[in-house]
Amino acid sequence: MADKFENHAVGLSSPAVRAVTITPNDAAELSSSLRGYTVGGSGDLAVVFVDDTESVVLPGRIAGVDYGGRIKKILATGTTATTIVGFF
Fold this sequence. Notes:
Layout: E1 19-22, E2 34-41, E3 43-49, E4 56-61, E5 67-75, E6 82-87
Antiparallel strand pairs: 1-6, 2-5, 2-6, 3-4, 3-5
């Protein structure tokens, strides 16, 4: 299939070009920072943003909503949301 947008630059406001299912982990950072995410099961999400060293809990993430955020780590401790999918 041809990609009509292959010559357009990918930016933070453009649609994602790749997605990955994420397993929260207190120790390891993600292999690449996210530009956004969604959750399949509502709940809280404990994250570390790319320019931060401390985690923050994002409360009440709603299933099926696409959220933006440059995130480098999603922690198991403090995360109650399920089926987390990260966008690149």
